[in-house]
Amino acid sequence: MYQYKGSDRPSAVERAMEQIIGYISDQGLGDGERLPTERELAELLGVGRSTLREALQRLSTRNVLEVRRGVGTFVSYKHGVADDPLGFTMIRDKERLARDLLEFRILIEPRTAALAAQHATEDDVAELEYLCDSVDELISTGRPHLERDQEFHTCIARCGGNIILPKLLPIIHGAIGVFIAETGGQLRDETMRTHRAILNAIRAHDPTAASDAMYLHLIYNRDRIRPDSITRGGRYGVPEGGTDGS
Fold first, then answer.
1. Tens-digit pLDDT string for the chain (246 aa)
2. Range(s) of the domain holding residue 58
3. Same-domain check for residues 55 and 109
């Protein structure tokens, strides 16, 4: 059993947090590796279940751990990085921020999806399908889907096996949140359809199809926030006051 070695008198939850971090270090658990179940971990550390849950939750909010509902608790890829590491909340022009973040995603995420198609395991695909279904259900019932949408893209990045890509997730997460806020979540049908296409391509281990599906997903998003949107007859569609040339 791991013992806290400190001269002060931390709370039971704080001691449990230190024990969990010590366990991760001693066991050599790396990014994305799973911790034992709550019951097993409580027995290993000699702490109560309620204390352990609170400790896990606090470590999760600090991005030391990642708790995936129905799957387990994992070492976070973020290693304590704040959810807003680049200070997006301080940028006043949210419309420009949304556009620029989408440009960044277009540079990164199609390749990320291609890597996921090459390397995803059966368990990875099962988790992606669960998250895809969850996003669909939330959108269909009119409930907020931001968190699940973020988890879907997080899972894709993990599947690719590149240790750097998951470090960029706080930026991607920020982009998803800013986009939904700027558009009022208008692209519900497109989100469900393109998420499903990404999932199917990864399941089929087809890197080209996965890249194309992700690119289409992001292009729909970019088009929605352009002032000259194709879908609203902008200069890449039918120009205002013009003709379509037919």
1. 444 444 445 688 888 988 998 888 888 887 778 899 989 999 999 999 899 999 998 888 777 888 887 788 888 866 655 556 666 665 677 778 778 888 888 999 999 999 999 999 999 999 999 999 999 999 999 888 888 888 899 899 989 988 888 777 767 776 677 766 666 556 688 889 999 999 999 999 999 999 999 999 998 877 776 655 554 544 544 444 444 443
2. 12-75
3. no
Structural domains of the chain, count = 2
Its pTM surpasses 0.70: no
Residue 233 lies in a domain: no
Residue 42 shares a structural domain with residue 163: no
What secondary structure does DSSP assign to 131-188, as a single string?
A: HHHHHHHHHHTT---HHHHHHHHHHHHHHT--SSGGGGHHHHHHHHHHHHHHHTS--H
Q: Are 108 and 165 in contact, with CB atoms under 8 Å apart?
A: yes
